[in-house]
Model the fold of this input.
Amino acid sequence: MSNEVTKLGKILIAWLTILILSGTSSSSAQTLEWSNPRKLKGSAVFTSVIGENETGLYMLRFRNKFLTRNIIIERYRNHLGFALSKNITLKRSRLLYAELQEKGLLLLTAHYSRKGLQNEVRCQWYDANINPIGKQRTIATSSLADYYDKGDFRVRFSNDRKTILISHTEKSDQGKRILCIDLFDSDLNPLRSHRYELDIRYPNFYLPNIMVDNSGNSFFLISQRRVEHRREEISPAKMSVYWFDYKRDKLADYDILDSGIQLKKSMFSWDRTTNKVNLTALYTDKEIGKTKGLFNFQLWLDSSLKPKTTYRPFNDEFKQQLFGAGEGFRFDDVEDFELKRAIPNTDGGLTLIAERSSISNETDVTYINGMPTTLARNIYNFDDVLILAVNPDLKIRWKHLIHKSQSSLNDNGYYSSIVVAHTRSHIYLLYNDRLRTNGDVMQYMFDVNGQMTYKILVRSDNHFVSIIPSEAKQIGYNRVILPVTKDRKFSILKLDYPN
Done:
């Protein structure tokens, strides 16, 4: 009897081991979840992912990218079953930002107040049924620079979604730019409010990018445009990073460029490991010119280290490291590459993703009833993707070049380009392969050491499936939401990645 009990115990232990191992493997696997395809009604053709909480997934649909007149808010249940849709009319206002918080759905809108003769930012909360919570209230105001001034409000949320930065500019009596900073907590209670008059003439000012970190530190990339004072005199362009130090409650500025250097699509990133802010971009040697190299500005927030600017020129040696000696002739210059993402690494370096893209124009003349008619076509090309990890001094640790070719006509590249997502240990790239045919959705995965694997994420054997990269969003540390066209209907694909 004891032998039978022992055998039975061993069998149970074996089954438990199998269950535990199977549970472990399934929990570490990537999961895909689909919503039912829907044929969208109405004229709201663009989609944006807002976020997800315990009440479901919220989506924004709109007709024009100015986000005026009216918008549609849709809610899906957590397993992507469609719950409801509600139209919100924007009366003489435009939507600045839509955010999902624990309290509910938050909409920030810009208005013109005839009574106060000023532009205003107003906030309104909504519940799970998209019904207003309380009354709309004004949280920021801006005086008018001229009759046509509609306000240049910018909104940013910190990574932990607990600090909100709303910035705008005004015109001083001396004709200078005034930088206005308003910081709020997640309930939109004011934390800081400052106005700084900058030594920059009002028409010279340009603000390419802003960012706020989890501690309320705010960063502004400010450029001074070239403006002719006289016919023979042109003022040199200048670019600076301004840091509002939340702890010290003061504004500091740093000149970041050498003379004659210009940045292309610069982007801020916050390195939480070293509490460092990076400003990364490709740079050119003229205001409009060919790409000459890689630029990075480093600013340590709680250290005595001085800010540092690093240039990595694209010389022949660097190009051969990137593209290989055999095929380097195809990339005599890299002006078609555009930086898509800069992700801080734990070693203080960066992982950079760049894509080659271009727009070409063609004109055809056809005759209709003997009359010549001109037809213009815009061709959008999205090609190779470069991913490289660099040290803090911008030396290459590892790199990969992914060859792809996407070309479309008069659609602004709607189904082209890539989706970038990252977890604690991996980076993922997704794109539509072979757009002109029933192509598949490809996924590339990279680990911290540069090891690459790839697979077909969605196969289009039975259904024509195309993801919409410009509308995708990573809503958690390991979750990505992809709006998808599936057999000419709208669908949502939820991706959950392992850690």
Residues 117 and 235 are 34 Å apart (CA to CA).
